[in-house]
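Task: sequence design from structure.
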């Protein structure tokens, strides 16, 4: 049984040489040395402990919607959270495990008539990834509706939202401090019209197809997409990776992009924007593996 992993070695319970490309939203990248799909907190924690014991780098992945995996792959353990997907509610709170998708969370809110998280509609992400990234949209951040986060730190530890270090696309969580679950504080009344309006705005303003969402973070006094557009870089391409013509902060995979194409394009954009506006853009997308 996976729950009894105890002191088992990674080689005993992980998949080996696991292809990551099709698991990522962008659709590029190589293989992971190991992959594991824990189904509960015990096997999640046991995998993390085994990785530490064996000195293997660890990457906790939700929907892999914000990662660019190197074409050379990842020489470590990729832990996919999709199977930890219980969701429940009570006492004005929704409790969702890290692998619950934003779509499922919203559907649950609709069914239970709970409001406040509608702004997350259409983000192709997991609860764990959104908490770790402090995902946000339309002027709101997920931290504004989080009451607490349960992290894997040896065992599972509950951290009240104030102790989660939330700031713009940032938190204390990540592969070094994985999120097992999150508790949302919501109010009565799901606003279906708002959720639909937000999905419609996404369809209008964001490109279709394979992308990793916003490539760069916005600054205090600029929108990254606006600077990229003003630098004339819309539709600029390297190999199969191109700056979207719909929204310049999105890089799209035209079908055959490699991670190296995307990375080269990112460096090119940074160089051009720096030369034109003196602004150093900072990536929101997370790199996995060696580039
Ligand atoms: C079409 C599109 C639209 C998007 N729109 C938005 C948007 O409006 N707003 C926004 O903020 N983002 C947006 N994104 C980016 C992305 O969806 C978010 O960053 C999201 O939070 C990533 O969640 P994920 O589950 O895919 O995480 P992944 O991409 O799998 O991982 C992202 C980071 O989170 C870490 N992580 C994942 N799960 C856990 C966990 N359980 N514990 C600890 N760390 C973890 C990973 O190690 C990695 O560093 C968009 C992406 C796409 C493709």
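Answer:
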């Amino acid at each position: 049984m996976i729950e009894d992993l105890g002191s088992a070695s990674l080689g005993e319970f992980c998949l080996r040489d696991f292809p990551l490309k099709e698991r990522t939203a962008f659709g590029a990248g190589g293989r992971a040395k190991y992959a594991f799909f824990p189904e509960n907190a015990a096997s999640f924690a046991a995998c993390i402990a085994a990785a530490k014991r064996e000195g293997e780098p660890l990457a906790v992945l939700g929907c892999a919607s914000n990662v660019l995996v190197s074409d050379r792959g990842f020489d470590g353990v990729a832990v996919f959270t999709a199977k930890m997907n219980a969701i429940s509610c009570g006492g004005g709170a929704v409790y969702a495990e890290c692998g619950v998708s934003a779509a499922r969370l919203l559907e649950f809110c609709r069914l239970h008539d709970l409001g406040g998280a509608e702004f997350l509609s259409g983000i192709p992400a997991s609860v764990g990834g959104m908490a770790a990234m402090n995902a946000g949209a339309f002027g709101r951040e997920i931290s504004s509706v989080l009451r607490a986060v349960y992290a894997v730190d040896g065992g599972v530890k509950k951290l009240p939202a104030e102790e989660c270090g939330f700031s713009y696309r940032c938190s204390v969580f990540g592969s070094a401090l994985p999120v097992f679950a999150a508790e949302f504080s919501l109010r009565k009344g799901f606003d279906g019209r708002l959720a639909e309006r937000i999905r419609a705005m996404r369809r209008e303003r964001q490109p279709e197809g394979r992308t990793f969402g916003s490539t760069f973070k916005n600054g205090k006094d600029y929108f990254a997409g606006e600077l990229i557009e003003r630098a004339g870089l819309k539709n600029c391409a390297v190999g199969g990776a191109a700056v979207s013509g719909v929204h310049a902060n999105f890089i799209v995979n035209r079908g055959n992009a490699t991670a190296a194409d995307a990375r080269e394009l990112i460096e090119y954009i940074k160089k051009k924007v720096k030369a034109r506006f003196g602004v150093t853009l900072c990536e929101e997308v997370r790199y996995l593996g060696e580039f």
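The chain has three domains: 2-80, 87-192, 207-288.
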